[in-house]
Amino acid sequence: LNRIKASGLKLRFCTNETQATREKFVKKLQGMGFDISVAEVTAPAPAACRILKERSLRPHLLVHNDLVPEFDEIDKANPNCVVIGDAAENFTYANLNEAFRVLIGLEKPVLISLGRGRYYKETDGLKLDVGAYMKALEYACDVQAEVVGKPAKMFFESALAEMGVPPEQAIMIGDDIVNDVGGAQRCGMRALQVRTGKYRSVQTLHP
Amino acid sequence: LNRIKASGLKLRFCTNETQATREKFVKKLQGMGFDISVAEVTAPAPAACRILKERSLRPHLLVHNDLVPEFDEIDKANPNCVVIGDAAENFTYANLNEAFRVLIGLEKPVLISLGRGRYYKETDGLKLDVGAYMKALEYACDVQAEVVGKPAKMFFESALAEMGVPPEQAIMIGDDIVNDVGGAQRCGMRALQVRTGKYRSVQTLHP
């Protein structure tokens, strides 16, 4: 990382974190000794904000409380779309019905999802991830969600736009063959899989 | 209804009600003056019970509290499937995670859904129906739910089996072109649409 920075190459960190702000995420990495700042991080929430601004969308949020500050500068009055993230405890019956009512009440429902994960593991067991609740709203409203976050093409395009770099001049480095390598390649970037983290030797990408 | 009964024809009432027992449903109709008994009603919950018994399935229930008595005689210890109905207030984050954990923990997940409705209207507004939550679990566990209730073929077959009548000797009478008429026809029965209830003249079934 220090060698990349010293070389003068442009750099972005791409994460699918949606249970906390970039500030919190960056502090954690800084604590581990990494040279990283909030401005260098591309995450689903700010990528969604970019889309909201571009298309004059005012979101109804169904997200984790800790993520709400990422949407501070976004107009949320009289919502004309729904943004769903891994809301965890906020996935209540009442909140799901409320998000549904906003969506179904729109002439052309727009659902933006900060990921498409099925489930994840916490210390107290497996939990349904945002993708499951996204599917519930998709079915109820007969819409297709627009997914932000890796491996969505739109997510990598956001990162490239922030750097002002065309895909063919960028390389993605990651440990996830689908979310990192596959997503970047579909976007026209080259990609490099590191043999650390979640890398397993049996995983290969069939073109 | 009285003329059908007087003629000696076999008769079943087929309903998609899953927020209450047949007892409650029948009492309501009796109060309106209809000659109807619980034994004449085919509803999703008892149809599911029939399937559970046939296949030695022990369900984890995610249903409305008022529906639980329908499953009184079913062994629910050490569950090897999940039965989902319109659980309403029981669709909590904790309950959904629990049903998900049962399903994902099974070698071959079996999900039985008491309907596939998208949403319905109550006095305090629109509510997500069982179909939306079914889709969430389907996606998270990569399974296809087995849907009981109209218009599922299996549901009409249950009613026919209870009467001991082959489909070609039965006729379905209802007001819903999809759930009543379409479902019965796909099952090999003839069907008659009444011009009452939810009947609208613009609705026709394209074969």
TrEMBL record, chains A, B:
It is found in: Cytoplasm; Nucleus. Its EC number is 3.6.1.1. It catalyses: diphosphate + H2O = 2 phosphate + H(+). Transmembrane segments: none annotated. The keyword Cytoplasm applies. Keywords: Cytoplasm, Hydrolase, Magnesium, Metal-binding, Nucleus. It comes from the Eukaryota. One of its GO terms (cellular component) is cytosol. InterPro entries: HAD-like_sf (IPR036412), HAD-SF_hydro_IIA (IPR006357), HAD_sf (IPR023214), LHPP/HDHD2 (IPR006355). Its main location: cytoplasm. GO terms for molecular function: inorganic diphosphate phosphatase activity; metal ion binding; phosphatase activity. It holds the Pfam family Hydrolase_like. Its cofactor is Mg(2+). Belongs to the HAD-like hydrolase superfamily. Phosphatase that hydrolyzes imidodiphosphate, 3-phosphohistidine and 6-phospholysine. Has broad substrate specificity and can also hydrolyze inorganic diphosphate, but with lower efficiency. NCBIfam families: HAD-SF-IIA-hyp3 (TIGR01458). This is Phospholysine phosphohistidine inorganic pyrophosphate phosphatase. It comes from Pterocles gutturalis (yellow-throated sandgrouse).
